[in-house]
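Most newcomers find our protein records easier to grasp once they have seen one. Read left to right, the backbone structure tokens trace the chain's path through space. Nothing more is needed to start thinking about how sequence determines fold. An example says more than a description, so a record of this kind follows:
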Amino acid sequence: MVDKDLYNPQQLIEDVLINSGCIENIEVKNVYGGNFSDGDKSFGYFENNNSNFPFERGIVMSTGRLSNVPGPNNGLSDDNAPGWIGDDDLENYLDLDHTVNATILEFEFTPLADNIRFRYIFASEEYRENQSTTCQYSDAFAFLIRPVESEQYENLAVIPGTDIPVKVTTVHPEIPGSCPAQNEDYFEGFNSYESPIIFNGQTTILTAETEVIPGQTYHIKLVIADEINYRFDSAVFLEAESFNIGANLGEDIYGLCEGETHLLEPLDIGAQAENYKWFLITDQEEILLEEGPDQNSFEVQQSGTYKVVIEYAGSCAAEDIIQVFYEDFSSLQPIDISSCIQSDQNLQGFVYNLMMYENLILQGNSDYHLQGFFYSEEDALSEINSIDNPEIFHSQFPGQKVFARIVTERGCLTSLEISLQAAEESIEPVHLFVCPDEDSFSQFSFQLTDAIAEIQDQLDVYIDYFEFYETEQDAFYQENPLASEISLSKNELPFSVFIRIDGALGCQGLGEIILNDLEKPQIDPSYSPPAFCDDNQQAVVIEAGIVDAGADYLFLWENGADTPTIEVDAPGEYQVTVSQPHIISGDTLYCTLSRKIEVKNSEKPLVDYILHGDPGNYEVEILVSGIGDYVFSVDDLPWSMENRYPIDSGKHDIRVKDLNGCGTIKKSFYAIDYMKFFTPNNDGINDFWKILDDHPKNSQIKNIEIFDRYGKLIIVLGPHDEWNGTFHGNPLPSNDYWFKINFKNGKIFKRNFSLIR
């Protein structure tokens, strides 16, 4: 919602934008904007009406009509007004050559603290997704501030931490093939049709801020303008009540060590502060810790959420909250790890790769760093007598303890006890047989996880974590793990891989998986069962759809039939199981395939269509009704499940085919366009303006009205009429003219074209 009259300019600034006891002597000095004939303005009040626009309410300043600002984003804000000029200050401070359509709000104020800030969003029609113009053109705006006795402005509408003005060309993502991203973190995105504002794109929420002198009166000029010409409007949205002061305790503090203290001090606070209050915030309450005019810092000794409230003269106060975290090692509990490889150096020992457990030891905390392994806790804390080669450590006996030294980024120190255990489980080799891939009789795909169930039966325990490796050595070091599905050629079989099983104790066992092949029945991908296309059809014969099924193949249909084909008398799904026998070590093993053959009722489709979009930019949606399975095509494009197609103007043919063999339907339609310009100079080329590619006999158009740029009606044309660029027989000058197409279905389409002489 926007409103040009709900608040006057003084109220917009004083009551909407500011509304704070920390800002005094607020006085609007200058207001300027578009002078529209219908009384519309280029600035005013807005509310988001519970939409997803980030600001609930505030002030909007535009280079076009205020009434154009609300969404959806279904058109172009592209306004102009008589005598609407630009702004010299904006040009001087942004180094521009020519601005027009400036909207300006200037006011003076006196701050009671030494900083001010307010939040804003810049939006523009000049954000054009994947178009090079986004790299080249931008309207301009600035928030210019100066002490009243000074003539030198400072611009606050800049990229944070720089002096770069916020513009389309300085804040955008990569435009493929045109330009790299510029300050992309501050670009919110390109807006869809459902956007609550009409503009094509917008920035994130940005903050304009600067230091000021308390008690000093300042002049601020909020200005936005089109650059070069009035085309493609922009707007800046100022959040209500965001023009204020604020305290700043800096970023949250992490990783303080036990016994360490840290001093909290507000940043950029002038001597004019009258009182400080420090609070500890808990789930239940805010506890006052210290208060006083000299308490401009606070020393913390424990984790918590702290708040400072800085009181200034009158009813002015600023506050900020910070979280402080002390390092807590209590989550680091002693761990046990086990090995599957017995030591060749120590009779009762095993071999461990201690470094492999770094993530387990550090528990994924990126602030922790492992600084080696030691034989005792005292050695770990003192960093003496470290284990020389933790990647290959031979224990003396099961249960031996070693200690990891852990240090944080800030130097906090602890140790972690590690007990070295031996895996006790023995895993017998597991055999896996699989059928070949459907597309190849020489390439075999194995799902290694199929061995898990048999291994779990052997161990009588659920397996939490496992990985597959090509060699035992890779399994020990956990190097070069295999995917759970591997593909092998026939001449590589039989093939062995190794499974490493890990749990809470580390490695629980190593086992061998032996891979070999069986052949399975092959589905015939070209087989499509017949459909019931006619209500009077009595029966159809369906097959199992198997390639080269031998006489020893077994067939079993869900109705009990054991033949390769069956006759069915109704649509539905008919399941068949096909088994191919294999004799292995005297046993018969079957590679079995189950599939469902779907027999359908079907029919030719009833076809219609809807045109989405506007003339010259249509998309056709094909509508069908019927019980068949249909694919679509427009103008002989390949068949597709997609029923929406972008189309050019002219005649088009729709085709809809039933995949079940019940027929194809064809339907034709026309999509219109309009001439973007014409040149009535009697040279036989573009001498007349008209609507293009309309149906010659069954037009969708009722009539076309043509207007000059001031809205004066020039002529009314029939659907197939042409205009020669005259009015009452007199040639009209070169210019842009507007037209309105009145469709027979009640829709209206408006655009402009150029008459060129």
In short: The longest strand covers residues 99-111. The CA atoms of residues 291 and 562 lie 92 Å apart.
